[in-house]
Design brief:
This protein has 626 residues and is an alpha/beta fold. It contains 17 helices and 27 strands.
Length: 626
């Protein structure tokens, strides 16, 4: 190796060491569609000389091919990687780019502007320290500007750059800039930003992106890159309370049992006392292991394996915390939730909640309100639809350890997952745990279900009849109860119309009301079955999720789902109450089978084809089931 090679090698090594010592800033660009987010990032990378020559050549070729800038460079093409985005001129997915300067390293997430891709924006913002919110100077503050600003605030991003872009379209007019800034600051007064920095830009022309522009002599603030290089960002402190979600129990052989994960907050060292939540078991850290070496300490965001001085029960999803500073444990939470699915979310419906590595059943028990992003008005609602942002109460199947999102993102953020499709339907942040469950002390009765059954001469049970209107539910239920009465079996029918005339008379027939109708009925059926009665419910109960919820209230063998399977055509021909005719005339909205769906059971305990079986034959089959 010659002297030149040695010199080059030393320079490279020195450069890498300098880069390694730089801190990392994560930021997002967001705003309304076509505000110039991708163009801005592309311009920044290009002017900072962070694009290789072959990339520039490809960019020039692609720009001429697309023809969006009349033969000039289209900087958006550096970022818009999806073919669909290039064809439409919009960003659909979240595009991540890594780059660095002599002052700082950066990861930028270019997030989509269209409302239907709000969920993508939430994903990109979840780890950001700064949000660059673009506004088209010729358009002003739009709905998506407000939506993204509200989400940015909700996600706890402290610093915002109000990038007033396309100033070239308004002749770099200071009055236009000041008017947009005033409108935005008035809207953002109730949000939680620590700082808002407004910068006039033209991403297309390069004004105030890297270099200060001569077109805006009236502006004396920083350039965009200058701001990003100098803004102070909060770092996870090693002095915070130790939090370590367990992702994996590492047991390669009989001699080693460790708990792998990433330090979410604080630090840990051998000899430190810890507590495992939710069990509360205590131990002392024996080793902090990183692959094949033992570390004197683990710091925030470091992935390690911990070994303890004694055998304690630790599972994936548990949290190891400092023994003298445990986090809270609860099974009910006040949360802020962003709905991300085409299918609406309803009060009373069950989902799976995933917080870290913990996956557990959760029920949406209350929607306190959802937010109008234009006015920040709090609106009452019983459901959440795509892109709604709501204040929601969740109840879990069992207590889990957590922290408020404002204190620790890793232990305060979660996603909701549909139990059937496994799609992510919501992303949320825990505001605080609710203590209402801790203040309830259910009374144990001296006379239990077993003794009631002995007195009755039979065990309580629920026969849940489901099917379209006109499938024969009420008729079969009445015939079954008559036969049970003859046999000396105590029973009771919970009929849909009868329940709606009393207990549920406050409910309508929207999907949200149907969910609540079934939830209340299931709880009543549980109480009656506990009293020793055979309960027969005759409800359409159109949604699979709520029928499964009802089943989950009972022990195995105490609940039977019976599907009265009759085609819509046959049910409509019968139409004993004339409801189908009304629905077809538009006089009965939200009618199941016409303009509201019915989800047939996939694995009912019994299926009765009521278009072929007589009522007595149906009862015979039900008695066999009992």
């Amino acid at each position: 190796m010659n002297t030149i090679d040695l010199t080059t090698s030393k320079e490279v090594d020195a450069y890498l060491r300098r880069q390694n010592d730089l801190d990392l800033l994560r930021f997002i660009t967001c705003g309304s569609v076509d505000d110039g987010k991708s163009t801005l990032i592309g311009r920044m990378l290009y002017e900072a000389q962070l694009v290789f020559e072959d990339q520039v050549a490809t960019l020039l070729k692609d720009s001429k091919k697309q023809g969006t800038q009349g033969g000039d460079i289209d900087f958006a093409l550096l970022v818009d990687g999806l073919a669909a985005e290039r064809e439409q001129g919009i960003t659909i997915d979240v595009a991540y780019r890594f780059f660095g300067t002599d002052h700082r390293k950066f990861i930028v997430a270019d997030t989509p502007g269209h409302e239907q891709y709000t969920r993508n924006m939430v994903t990109g913002a979840s780890t950001a320290d700064v949000a660059v919110i673009l506004v088209d100077a010729s358009q002003g503050v739009l709905t998506q500007t407000r939506r993204h600003s509200f989400l940015t605030s909700l996600l706890g991003i402290p610093h915002v750059v109000l990038a007033v872009n396309k100033m070239d379209l308004v002749a770099y007019d200071e009055a236009v800039f000041e008017s947009i800034v005033a409108d935005y600051e008035a809207f953002a007064e109730s949000l939680t930003f620590r700082s808002i920095t407004a910068i006039p830009l033209s991403a297309l022309q390069g004004d105030n992106v890297i270099e200060r522009s001569g077109q805006t002599p009236w502006y004396s603030g920083p350039t965009l890159l200058g701001y990003l290089e100098t803004v102070e960002i909060a770092q996870n402190s090693a002095t915070e309370k130790f939090r370590f979600p367990v992702q994996w129990v590492n047991r390669p052989n009989a001699d080693f049992r460790g708990f792998a994960g990433t330090v979410a907050a604080g630090s840990i060292a051998p000899g430190d006392g810890v507590q495992v939540l939710p069990s509360g078991s205590k131990a002392v850290v024996n080793e902090v292991v990183l692959y094949d070496q033992n570390l004197p300490m683990a710091l925030p965001n470091q992935s390690v394996t911990l070994t303890l001085d004694r055998e304690v029960d630790v599972s994936r999803g548990d949290v190891i915390v400092a023994a003298d500073a445990p986090c809270e444990v609860s099974d009910q939470f006040d949360t802020s939730l962003v709905w991300m699915d085409q299918e609406a979310g309803y009060v009373g419906r069950g989902y799976e909640l995933m917080l870290g590595a913990k996956r557990i059943g959760a029920t949406l028990t209350e929607i306190k309100y959802k937010v109008n992003v234009n006015t920040l008005e709090q609106l009452p609602s019983r459901n959440l639809v795509l892109n709604d942002i709501g204040r929601v109460t969740l109840s879990l199947d069992e207590p889990i350890p957590f922290t408020a999102y404002s204190e620790c993102r890793d232990l305060g953020s979660f996603v909701l997952i549909d139990r059937y499709s496994k799609a992510t339907v919501g992303a949320g942040m825990i505001n605080f745990g609710l203590r209402r469950a801790q203040n309830l002390y259910p009374t144990e009765s001296t006379i239990n279900a077993q003794r009631r059954s002995q007195l009755m001469g039979h065990k309580g049970k629920v026969i849940w009849l489901t099917g379209l209107s006109g499938s024969g539910k009420s008729t079969v239920a009445d015939a079954l109860e008559s036969r049970l009465h003859q046999m000396g079996i105590h029973s009771y029918i919970l009929d849909g119309d009868n329940i709606r005339a009393g207990l549920n008379k406050d409910l309508g027939f929207t999907d949200a009301d149907r969910v609540e109708n079934v939830r209340r009925t299931a709880e009543v059926a549980k109480l009656m079955a506990d009293a020793g009665l055979v309960v027969i419910t005759a409800f359409i109960s159109p949604f699979r999720s709520e029928r499964d919820m009802a089943r989950s209230l009972f022990d195995d063998g105490d609940f039977a789902e019976v599907f009265l399977d009759e085609s819509l055509e046959v049910a409509e021909q019968r139409d004993p109450k004339g409801l189908y005719k009304k629905a077809r005339r538009g006089e009965l909205p939200h009618f199941t089978g016409i303009d509201s769906p019915y989800q047939a059971p996939e694995s009912a305990d019994l299926r009765l084809d009521t278009s072929k079986l007589s009522v007595d034959a149906c009862v015979d089959e039900l008695l066999k089931l009992l």
